[in-house]
Every structure is written in C-alpha cells, then in structure tokens.
Amino acid sequence: MPKIPIEKQNEKKEFSRKEIITPEKAETLKNLYQNKEFATIQKPPKVSSKIIILSIIISVIFGLLAGFFGALYLLTRKEIKIPLFKKINLEEILPKREITLFTEKKITVVPEERVLEVVDKVSSQLVKVFFSKKIKKGEILSGLILPEENLGLAVILTSDGWLLTTKDIINRKDLVLEILTSEKKRFPVKKIVFDDLAGVVFLKIEGKDLPVVKFADQESQILGKNLLVFNKFSDLDLVQISQPRFSPIKEKKDFIKSTEKFSDFLKINKELNESFHGSPVFDLEGSFLGFVQQKNQIIPLSHFRSIFESVFKNEKIRRPFFGLEYIELEDILVSSSDLEKVKNGVFVYTLKEKSPAFLAGLKNSDLILKVNEITLDEKKNLTEIIQEHKPNQEIEFLILREGKEIILKAKLDSLKF
Hints:
Layout: H1 6-20, H2 23-34, H3 49-75, E1 79-81, E2 87-89, H4 90-93, E3 99-102, E4 106-109, H5 112-122, E5 126-131, E6 150-156, E7 162-166, E8 177-180, E9 186-188, E10 191-195, E11 200-204, E12 214-215, E13 226-230, E14 236-246, E15 257-258, E16 265-268, E17 280-283, E18 287-292, E19 297-300, H6 308-314, E20 320-321, E21 324-328, E22 346-351, H7 356-359, E23 367-371, E24 374-375, H8 382-387, E25 394-401, E26 404-411, E27 413-414
Parallel strand pairs: 12-18
Antiparallel strand pairs: 1-2, 3-4, 5-6, 5-8, 6-7, 7-11, 8-9, 10-11, 13-14, 13-17, 14-16, 15-21, 16-19, 17-18, 18-19, 20-27, 21-22, 22-23, 23-24, 23-25, 25-26
C-alpha cells in the first residue's frame, strides 16, 4: 500500500475539519449566539447540606430495618424458595437458631426444636405413679390406667430403681403404689421414704439399667433462665426464673428462719395450675433442678441433694440438727456503727436449750459471719450450709460479738423426725 506524505495527511485532516462545519450549521450557531435568552447561563441551585444528611439517615434506617426483618425471616422459617433455584433448607445451614432480644432483661425466644429435644431427652427419665391395681384375667380394660388415676410424676435417681417425687403426689407411707415407665413397663413400689424437711418422697423399685436424670448446677439458676415443667397429663409449660432466691413474707415472724426448716425457694414468672403441683422441672440442657411446690415456687435441688447417700445406703433420712433461729442481716435496719461495715451475716434470734448451737456458746444477738470459711450471702444461707453436713460433723463459726470477732466450734446432732 503506497504511503501518503505527511504534508498530504495534514491537508486531509484540515479538509475533514472544514467539511464538518457546513454553511447550514454555521448559520444555526450564529443565530444561537445572537439569541438574548441565552445571554447568561445560570448555575443550578445548591442542594442544602441538611437535606443530604437527612437522606443518608433515612437510607441507613431503612437499611437496618431491611436487615433486621430479613434476619427475622430466616430465623423463623424452616426453608426458603428462591425463583429459578431449588429450595434451601435453613435447618441444615442454621441448625441452632434462636432470637435474643435485649431490653431491661435478657429474654431468649426458644425455638420449638430446642424444646422438643429436651422433651425427647428427659421423657425416659420420668415415670408415672399410680395406685396399684390388679389385672383381672380375660378383662383387658382392667389393666388400663385413666389419666385421672395417674397421681403424678417421679424422676429416676439411680439405675437400680431409686425414684424421687414430692408430698404433693404422695402424702402417706401406707399406700400401695406402682410406677409406669416411658416404655410401658410396670413396677411395684417396694419402699417409701419421706423427707419432711424438704417435702420430697423417695420411692424404691426393683429396676435395672434405668436411665437417670442429670442434676443442674446451683450456679446456673440465674434470673431469666428458661425452664420446662412437666405435669402428670403429659402437658408442659415454659417458664423463667424471676427470683433465684425467694422467701415468702406475709408477717414479721416470717423473717425468722430456722436451721431445721428451708425458707428460700426459686420463684418463676407465672402461676401454674394445680395439675403442675409436685411436677419436675428441667432446664433447656435437660438437667433436673427441682419440683414445683406451689403455683409459682420451686423446691430447689439444694434442699434434698445432700441426703441422697443416706437414703440409698440406709433407706432412711439422716439430717443434722443445730437448734438455732436467726434473722438475715439484709432484713434488718442497721443502726450500730460497728455493723455498717458488715455486708453479710445472720443475727442469732433464739437458741434451743442444750442444742449444738447452745452448747457451742452462741448467744442471742451474736452476728454469724462465716461457717467453715463460707460467707453467708445471697448465694447460700445458714440453713442450706448446715443441712449440707452430716450428723456428728464438727463445724466452725466466725461470729461478731460486741465489736470483736470470735471463733466457735459446734458438733452437729441428728434431727429427730
């Protein structure tokens, strides 16, 4: 292809530029510049900074709302279907889904799947208690148990057949009872042992390899904790701990507590109907922590766990006796300057004559600060600490008397029932 000289190329470019502006276009440009309406060009009005900021805030708010409702949708659906795609199973992607709302209290909305897991786990650890009945030969109906014939539920403590229920379910020792397991196996009750102090009842059957309950830790019994309550009709209710340590106070004398009577309970956030009285209570890990005593109170595990050993070995209750009535320091208006610095403790109110407390040298108005180096506070009261010990054990007290700290020792006696 022949090369064009540079001069010729420049001439061609100049010719091309001249050809672009035709006489008609030149006339149009001339008229445009002579038009007075276009004598000046105004700038577009300036947008206010307030409008810009407001637009950003509104965009952020709508973005947060969209994200919240989108997450809520995902947490409350088992699956989603996207057009042109297959269904997505959210239970496989997000197996443990729960929503936590932060208000004045922390409230957890428990998914149904979590509750069903606990029910499936603990159902084999529960048995139904009913009056023994003879099955007549040839009469099938005589072996059936009506729902109202079910006295209540008991939990399995040992694999060889020790069970636990409450006095709300069984109130007499001379009853002839049977139990029915989740596998529809029937066992006659061989032994009934009452613990009047805690209000619980031990039952013994001849079992083998029975599934036993797991016990909850006392430290886990905190405000707002979710609990499941089972009743004899196989109903269940989801409740929450509203007070980890609750003492019913109706009169001034209710402030006086005894080392031989439990007075602190777990309080829940709702009143349960009568069918739940005496029912076992579990947390959402499937751990057993007590029984419903009244409409909104629970007998905690700490009231009776210490006597398991004596029941399993000797088939009877052995409780320690100290013989002291007291008032907790937090319930008293302190006027003494010596006591203003003391945060925890109990005042000695009365002493039973010749009791271990009396023989140890305790006096009325002494302030007990510690027992065996354990501080008396909202986590443990004096009654629970005493009842965790066995008869004939020695305990040590740190007391405050007339501004001086004194150490005393006492040997526990056996509580007579």
